[in-house]
Specification:
heterodimer; A: about 260 residues; alpha/beta; Rossmann fold; 2 domains; four-stranded parallel beta sheet; 8 strands; about 50% helix; globular; B: about 475 residues
Amino acid sequence: MSAQPGPRPRVGLFATCLVDLIRPSVGFAAAKLIEASGCDVVVPSQTCCGQPAFNSGDRRTAKALAWQAIEAFEGVDYVVAPSGSCAGQLKKHVPELFEDEPELSRPADAFAAKVFELVSFLVDVRGMKAVDARFDGAVTYHDSCAGLRELGIRAQPRALLESVEGLTLTEMKDSDVCCGFGGTFAVKYGEISDAIVAKKADNISAAETGTLLAGDLGCLMNMAGKLQRLGRPVKARHVAEVLAGMGDEPAIGEPQGR
Amino acid sequence: MNAHSTSPAFKENAHRALHDPALQRALGNVETGFIGRRKSAADKLPEFEALRDSARDIKNHTLAHLDLYLEAYEAKVTAAGGHVHFAPTADDATAIVADICRRVGAKTVAKGKSMISEEIELNAALEAAGVQPVETDLGEYIIQLRGERPSHIVAPVIHLNRDQIEADFRRVHTKLPPERDLSAPESLLAEARGALREKFLAADVGITGANFLVAETGTSIIVTNEGNGDLSQTLPKVHIVLASIEKLVPTLEDASQMLRVLARSATGQEITVYTTFSTGPRRPADVDGPEEYHVVLLDNGRSAMLAGEFREMLRCIRCAACMNHCPVYHAVGGHAYGWVYPGPMGAVLSPSLIGVDKAGHLPNASTFCGRCESVCPVRIPLPKLMRHWREREFERNLSPAPVRSGLAVWGFFARRPRLYRFATRAAMGALSLLGRRKGRFGALPLAGGWTDTRDFAAPEGSTFQARWSAERRAR
């Protein structure tokens, strides 16, 4: 692993709601990777980035939660989230929420400048080129939309995955096409969401790998849930788990403590 | 005008579409055809991204000075011997067209492809005035035979398969030998051309849309691949151009820049087969052309958009790249959207034109994947504008009650971190126990939209924050 010289930056880990509630092991994997990149990790008291409210048209709640996050992460050098979607909300949309309020927009912009998605932080900010991890098997990688299009994350996870011993990456068809999750969309328009994820599941299966990786737990739960309902044997994991050498825990939606 | 829209029934429309095997088969063509062609056209042009910036800037500049460019355009059209008619509403526009047809005693009208004509429901108005409209674009011709609406703004019959069109032709073209071979798409095209040729010659009035209007010269521009638009506007005595006010560009140079991004974004062509410039009626030295040239300039809600937060939508040049790249459009097709404009551009435009109370589903039926914005030739921030509609709906209490109350409960906890940590820790612990055996749920209360078709992963147990503070304290 790489470590840059100089004092160790202090990174506030923004776990994201889904990791906090559903899959804490992703948070530990993220912390391990951030520490390996030469940083200290703190986890300030936190709830949600506010994206569900923002995308449902409830700007007032979105602003309240954004401001809560800005205050919670005061004093850290970076804010890192294992999610392109939540990092995109904090980096790209939080400044929009305060752009008409001069006294709030400056701290909002300063906060947004510190925010990074996990894998792009490791590669683009910390210069990490390889990880010290082993994973035996073939994987395919889904590019989650917000990470890909709002934050330009595409090469970074693939570069680090290449350094994982024993791992081979097989690209699926249309890896950059939405999986149909879309936050509340998945429930509000469940039938359409299902039609989209069904296509995605076919592309995943056609890649003929045992494992599906992605950088966003929402998309992963959607794809894993469809694969499992269809009885497909592909296991789904957050990319951080594999990069941190924690790819032998039960996969998403698998029983705990075998 | 009371627009005929089934947008309020979007969910039911989508349900039908998802269970229509013929439609699903046809929709496969959207993904396989348009996307690859656009990409290879864009990749071949090193300055394509810069051209998109330039196209955006040209449109922004025009919209900022639209009043001046409209005046200049009108003056040029008049100087060339044409007439400009301003139509504040759809009804005004249809009345203007019907009046012209009546004055010249028109019995049939040959029409080029025009989405404005769909928006104002011109065909119904013409028929009511005793005038027979004939669609001459192959796709629109088929749509007219079937009594349908286009399902796509560039490819009107993308929802149909070849065999369905063959059946329509056999049903309608009864004078042709029944044993004829129509198995090749070219034979369908040839048959439609044969049927249309006499209509062109008989038409008293030709109506076309416009892709651009040029203020500098008073020119209207259409792009087509079939040449039907040219016949529609040169053969009849009267040519009527139907266009909305945002079609203006300042100069011919600007128009040619816009054409470079339009064709590539729409069909992946460097330029469409026919790009036709019309300026006024036939001049004495011209070998052909109409005796009268009219432009009906439609507002229908657009000047109100100019002043508000949806102004950027007026940059749209109707290339359809957004819907061609939209996973929701791929799943349900254009008719499910319930009005003239489908896909992401329709999700922003339709609420502006027919009201968010009717079209409220459309800006919500998006995953915000952002692929539309990433290909828009004039860089319209479509997801952001859809989100603005969701904000208007939320303010007006138009969002569905379960969504509002769900959000309110979640927001209450999320704004109280200590309570949130306590409550989520307890809830996740309980859920984890319930899901322990399988690791996932096949059904969950209030989440049927998800669990009807997908499993839902059970939580690992304690929350990350609880585990983190416990483990770090133990160090």
